[in-house]
Amino acid sequence: MNTLRRLAVALAASVSCSVAWAEPTAEEWLQRMADAVEFLNYEGSLVYLSPGRAETFRVFHRVERNKVTERLVALDGAGAEIIRNDAVVICIFPESQSVVVEARDAAAKQSNPLQSRLPAYSSSLADSYQLGVMNTERVLGRAAAVVNIAPRDEYRYGYRLWLDAETAMPLKTQLLPVDGSMPIEEIRFTEISMPATVAMASVQTGLDTAGYSWMLQNKKPGLQQGDSRLGAWRAESPPAGFELILNALEVTEGSSAPRTHLVYSDGLATVSVFVDMGVAASEQAQGLAMMGAANAYSVMRDGLLVTAIGEVPPRTVEQFADSMRSQ
Description:
By secondary structure, the protein is mainly beta. It has helices at 2-20, 26-39, 125-128, 314-323, and strands at 42-50, 53-64, 67-74, 81-84, 88-93, 98-103, 129-139, 142-151, 158-164, 170-176, 185-193, 213-217, 233-235, 243-251, 258-265, 270-276, 287-291, 294-301, 304-310, 324-326. The protein has four helices and 20 strands.
């Protein structure tokens, strides 16, 4: 009996230890990464690489009493800056001596320039992607877990992330084509520190903007009435896994011409579809275009210009644009 009791105790101890020391799953790494990018203090230099393009930035990220202030400085060109806090995003353009201030939606991921380039975890990812932790490598002298997000079909790209083993900060990320060959884009820190505090002066511009022109940019106004042709547009046969998450009728800045704006998402990748009226003949360019990591495809339908755009393979935007129909 004593022997059985000792075996039972030993078995329970081994089980509890295995649970306590279980390696985080890919889903847990992604959740930790999202928290780290937003709520850790850090500063460093990073480089953005894509075919034929390389840009370097300095980032300062300050958190005090759960309030976030961030400053991103372009180290190339004229040195544009983006400063954001909970209330506004401030874009400073020294070349044109202008400042654009935009009210910030705290829930808008796009307000964080770094986080907007990173995949976010959602429960629907498993339907379209296979997630896994590959191994541990060293980046910038730090141990990093390598998380792989592989697409299950040819309608979306994959990701590979090198996350700091201690903090889950993304030290390097790659956007990968379906065949997993050369990265479409890569963002990596060339130097990073995560101090207990980041000085307030680091998240304030050092530029003298007294003589700059300032523009306050609010949310684009919604359209109350418009051409009936811009009513209910839908993709009749979107790629599997993509669902409509936004359908808005809007007007663009500096134009009175209305357009329909739809957004489809599979939980990670997003595709925006714009249906524009009143487009000049010289701007009715049809076909495929590439803009960095994004692809866009345009077609004319019923006298309206339909454009699908997103960081997805060309066939995805083509299928969205070709399958759009007015309901």
